[in-house]
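Dock adenosine monophosphate; give full complex structure.
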Amino acid sequence: MSTDTIFSRIVRGEAPAQIVYQDEDVTAFRDVNPVAPTHILIVPNKPIATLNEAGAEDQALLGKLLLTAQRIAGEMGIAEQGYRVVINCNAQGGQSVYHLHLHLLGGRRMTWPPG
Ligand code: AMP
């Protein structure tokens, strides 16, 4: 499975995106088709296709992705009211871009269970 997706191109600055945070490990940008008032995607710069492909060597990176979501939630003013962090994995999980990403969703009440 090719891991050179649109998200790798965004990480490398080769495709347009509204980047809200980037460092040597992770990149965060606005989802082009937001499903909540705040909808940010947080991706590892390294192209891991799905959560299934993450390994023990990625333990710190996975933690950093979560802490980045936490920090952006604070910066965007949704931490207090609450938010949701989602990882879709493979077809039944609803994954459409095969570069691991967290969805940070907030600014409205979330429903449960998800559809
Ligand atoms: P998923 O279904 O979990 O794989 O989520 C992929 C997400 O990427 C969807 O919410 C899309 O709206 C979003 N998306 C796809 N292409 C782009 C892009 N070029 N820039 C920003 N978000 C994108």
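Observed: The mean pLDDT is 97.
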